[in-house]
Amino acid sequence: MAKVKAAHQENVRAQQVYAKLLTELADFPISFKLAGKSYKGFNDEFAVSVNRKPLEGFKETATVTAAHASGLVVTVHTAFYPQYAAYEWTAWFKNTSSENIGPLADVNGADVLLEGYNPVLRYLLGDGSADGAEAPFKPHVITMTSHMALDFTCTSGRATEGNFPYYNLEHGDGGTLLIVGWPSQWRARFSYTYGNMHFTAGQEKVNAILYPGEQIRAPLMVFIVYDGRDDLRVSNLWRRWYIDCNMRKIDNKMFEPVVSGGTSWIYEEMIKATDENQIAAIKTYAENGIQLDYWWMDAGWYYKRDGETLDVWLPTGYWHVDKHRFPSEFADIADYGATVGTKMLLWFEPEVVRMELDELTEGAVKREWLVGSHREDFGKSGVPEWYLVDFGNAEFRKYFFERTTSIIDKGKIALYRQDYGIYPLPIWEKADSPDRIGMTENLYNQGYLEFWDALIERYPNMMIDSCASGGRRNDLESMRRSVPLHKTDADYSNFAVKHSMHQSLYNWLPYYGTPVTGPNYANPNDKYAIRSAFIPWIAFGFDVRKDNVDWNFVAGLVNEWKQFNHLFYEDYYPLLPWSRSEQDWAGWQFINSDTGEGVVQLFRREENEEAQKTIKLHGLDAKAKYELRDLDRGVTFASGKELMEKGYLAALPEPRSSAVVLIRQV
């Protein structure tokens, strides 16, 4: 059996759909209203042209330009991925006239009809979801009936909060993956009637005049077509396209698995951190045989204002390093880290000001850069009631780019971490005038992506970490530029919830991170806890001031992880039903079907009463023989046919225990 990839007939079908998009422009599947008139596609009121470019790398591209007599020019950037049965587009709307035009309203970045009976919609809840913060990324499956409609949006303006804009729609004899790539308040609607699914998606609210020269954009829309209704295969079709065609390369290769360390749990983020104690902490790991790839420095390294040292990390808005605590501005930490092979990660949160306006003195964020500062009733808004800095303001972007790059350069920072701990939607809405609904948000998001692109251009081999109170802004536009190293603010010491998140997320986001535990966890030498963090990025937070860490034990577990961490980009299969109950087992498998190398990770949770479980594996060659080496319990051999049909008998005699089983074709 080979790695999962799109079949020839799937690629042909996707190519036919894409070709139709570019030839039947009157029916191009976007829709909007202009000055009260509805449009779907580009009728004879538009002068339309198509500029195609040949295949480059994984994709071929084309740009559709549609000019309306009013001066509105719609530009649609499209792409087709011939080996992945995937295509995409993003629509931009620009006023090229010398007068205001519009209003432009009800903009659907996709307005698509999909044929096929018996539709089933598969999706995840987002972080901080409607089921409660203890259940982020819970999977849902809904069988739709005729005249049924489902509406989705995120909550409070962060893209993956509440809901997750990645959908698998089964319809007819196959299905379509549908992705809404928008960093803020998106909407999606699935409406089914007698064999026809109507799918629309866009920014939730747009009803605005456009000023001369001004443009807004719709979300990135992605579609992957597939045959059959095998959700495990479809998940791996997505993973292969996501990995090959979307994830940023660092030093011309995939971003590698990482072991990181930090002192957030013991120094109140960075409030009590110094050059000296950070170097001492890194040294403790190095001298005890733990090779850290990155050192994680989080919030609280800055002044409050005018050189005033913080007593809590929250007062953001004055982005200057506290030289009382970090006289080298991190350079000494980075220099020592370089001697032991450890790079530096540093936290920023440019979008949130948690100080009063009179505290924004020279060198801080300016009042006029705050969203809504033009209004007479300007003040705190949103929940929590903090100020939101406007990424739509070019002057602010220039200021923060210069501040950030200065800190990165002086401190020799190798990974930029951006947090976003605010609910922005009510602030954007308050800032809009009645004839400009949705504009503040749209321009803001254009600026946010432009800022990240500028950072990437300046530092092409520096990864970005996308954080928003955990995993609340992990839309596809953000993920094309970053990885989510802190995927939730849920309790990382609740291992059943952690397993459930990992099982869900691997289907959509192959690379993400986790702390081993939450703060104040009593046992640093907990195999179950450390193995529960065996994912692409592991973050240790030991109290290095104490002598209670069995470093040889920890180093042994890190070496276990290193034996199989190269498999995280291979095909993925959940092996047991999704659950966050302590009464269940959890587990999954990664397999390179071309080489026969893989791994199974299993967890018998705390209240489970089953000492053994038979688990059917995936992606094996039925005719081949395999060695399965349980790193705790020895080696067994079986054929691929036996392992896939009868299953592998896993034994975990004690509750709250785990297994790592390495697979090798022999």
Automatic annotation (TrEMBL):
Hydrolase among keywords: yes
InterPro entries: Aldolase_TIM (IPR013785), Alpga-gal_N_sf (IPR038417), GH (IPR017853), Glyco_hydro_36_C (IPR031705), Glyco_hydro_b (IPR013780)
Keyword Hydrolase in record: yes
GO molecular function: alpha-galactosidase activity
First-level EC class: hydrolase
Protein keywords: Glycosidase, Hydrolase
Documented EC number(s): 3.2.1.22
Name this protein carries in UniProt: Alpha-galactosidase
Organism expressing this protein natively: Paenibacillus mendelii
